[in-house]
Amino acid sequence: MIGDGMGLSQLSAAIYSSPTPLALEEFKVIGFQKSYSSSDLITDSAAGATAFACGVKTYNGAIGLTQDTLPCLSILEEAEQRGLATGLVVTSSIVHATPASFAAHQKMRIFYERIAEDMAASGVDLLIGGGKRYFDRRNEDDRDLLAEMQARGYLVRDYFNGDLDQVKPDPNLNFVFFTADNQPLPVNQGRSYLAYASRLGTEFLDLRGKDKGFFLVIEGSQIDWANHANEGKLAIQETLDFDRSVGEVLAFARRRGNTLVIVTADHESGGMALEQGSKQGRVKPEFTTNGHTGSLVPVYAYGPGADAFAGIYENTAIYSKMRHFFGWDTDQNSALQLNKTTTQTLNN
Ligand SMILES: [Zn+2]
Question: For a tag site, which of 4, 24, 54, 307 has the least CB within 10 Å?
Answer without folding.
Answer: 307
